[in-house]
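Students often ask why inverse folding is considered easier than folding. One informal answer: many sequences map to the same fold, so there is more than one right answer. In these notes we will look at a single instance of the problem. The structure comes first.
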């Protein structure tokens, strides 16, 4: 036993005196910076300029006259559209990430009515949405970008054109084409969407400044019998 203790002590001394010894975690990269918490209980109010529609024709946001964008889940589309319409004044309570012009709605009130985004009851399925891919139409959009559209994390996921058409695309496409997607720039888009009394919106499958320079960025809704959604192809980051 004495010999064993002496051996351990010798090993510890050798390790302690060796300049080559470093803890295993010494070469790990530093921890990432702590994310800044969103501003909770944010209140935004103003006149509703237009609905922000997704390609299925559902409202999942509002654009206020001062440029503030309000985001809410699309299953609240019918309730919000019953409570207000463009031109009305609305008060929105929710949260927003720092330096992001989007308020994630928790509740809104207008015309004496209120809509609350209540969390689902544990064990219940989320509300069903009327989504029929066959109802989407092949569409094109062409015009000047008036405003970029953001999700509540601050990622660009769409563009509002001067004729009020909404062009949507995934956030990673917005990041890849960030240099070209700027207010004032021309944008041509082909894709799938809806056109109705509340507005026009499409999901871009090809984009570019003109029809002749448009590049494919995403597959459309076509799929073969018994197949799932088609995986997107890598975009060509130039237009």
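Output (designed amino acids):
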């Amino acid at each position: 036993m004495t010999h064993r203790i002496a051996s351990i002590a010798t090993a510890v001394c050798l390790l302690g005196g060796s300049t080559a010894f470093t803890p295993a975690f010494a070469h790990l990269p530093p921890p990432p910076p702590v994310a800044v918490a969103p501003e909770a209980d944010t209140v935004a109010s103003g006149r509703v300029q237009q609905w922000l529609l997704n390609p299925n024709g559902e409202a999942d946001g509002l654009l206020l006259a001062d440029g503030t964008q309000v985001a809410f889940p699309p299953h609240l589309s019918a309730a919000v559209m019953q409570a207000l319409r463009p031109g009305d004044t609305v008060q929105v309570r929710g949260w927003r990430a720092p330096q992001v012009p989007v308020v994630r709605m928790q509740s809104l009130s207008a015309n004496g009515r209120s809509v609350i985004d209540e969390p689902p009851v544990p064990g219940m399925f989320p509300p069903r949405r009327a989504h029929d891919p066959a109802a989407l139409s092949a569409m094109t959009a062409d015009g000047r970008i008036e405003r970029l559209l953001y999700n509540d994390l601050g990622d660009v996921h769409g563009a509002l054109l001067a004729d009020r058409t909404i062009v949507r695309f995934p956030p990673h496409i917005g990041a890849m084409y960030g240099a070209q997607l700027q207010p004032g720039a021309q944008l041509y888009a082909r894709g799938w969407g809806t056109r109705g009394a509340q507005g026009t919106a499409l999901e871009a499958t090809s984009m570019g400044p003109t029809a002749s320079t448009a590049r494919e960025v995403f597959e459309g809704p076509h799929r073969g019998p018994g197949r799932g959604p088609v995986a997107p192809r890598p975009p060509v980051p130039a237009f």
